[in-house]
Amino acid sequence: MTLVLTNLVSKSTGKTITHCVLIIILLATSSTSYSIAPARRLDTSKPISSKIVIFISPTLEEIRKMKAETKDLDGFYTIADDTNYYNYKAMEFLDKHNFPYKLTDNKKINFMVNNKVIEMDYSKSEQAWFVLIYNGKDKPTKTYAIDIDEHEALLKQLTEPTSTPTPLPH
Predict the structure, then answer these.
(1) Which residues, in sequence order, are CB contacts of 102 under 8 Å at separation 6+?
(2) CA of 148: how far to CAs of 33, 119, 142, in Å?
(3) Is 114 helix (H, G, I), strand (E, B) or coil?
(4) Where are the alpha helices (DSSP H) in the chain?
(5) CA dist., res. 83 & res. 20, Å (int)
(6) What is the pLDDT of residue 34?
(7) Helix (H) or strand (E) holding 109
(8) What pTM value is reported for the model?
(9) Where are the transmembrane segments (predicted)?
(10) Residue 31 burial by CB count (10 A; 0-12/13-18/19+): exposed, middle or buried?
């Protein structure tokens, strides 16, 4: 296992690939637990009101269930591997452009929408891994890591000031 990590890391210029590889290893080995780094974990205990990109992933229990239900375990690992790669590339893109992002496996998230708290429930989503782009005021837009750069206009809203200053009278 160390050789695999060393080879993958030595081909990469970024440190995040290590985290991606570790996530893949955790998925592949079905360890009893995994966790998101506290600095990157989305706090879902209160409504989300700030502009952010959120990476949603399955819980460990959901991963176990998917593995148990699949007839093609190799296919599952391929999908998990590809997803982790695209998540890594999306996070690299977001970092490059200074767009804020967090991660969670919680499928019920409260957002402030038009000054009201709205619970968005993604527990019935057909996709296990996806991304939400929240501009701080409207319902979040659901997309996928592979498509993150296609949402340029929406992502720009994440770095624009929340309100425009009132012009001074002449």
Answers:
(1) 40, 41, 42, 52, 53, 54, 55
(2) 28, 23, 10
(3) coil
(4) 2-10, 16-29, 60-69, 73-96, 152-156
(5) 10
(6) 57
(7) strand 108-113
(8) 0.73
(9) 16-37
(10) exposed
